[in-house]
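haha ok so turns out i had the wrong file open the whole time. this is the CORRECT one, sorry everyone. sequence first:
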Amino acid sequence: MIVITESCVGCATCMLVCPADAIRVEGKAEINYELCKNCKKCVLYCPLEAINFVETAG
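then structure:
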């Protein structure tokens, strides 16, 4: 699962690189988990490392 931390400043880099259009930025980034494909591009491109991928059980 992709998680946005409090370090997010709303630069919108994640929104621009998301191939699923699953991220919108209103103040800080928000993920639509129904659209998110867990490709991790947002994690890789976030300049502040404010987005993390967390393994979930199951």
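The chain is about 15% helix and 25% strand.
again sry for the mixup
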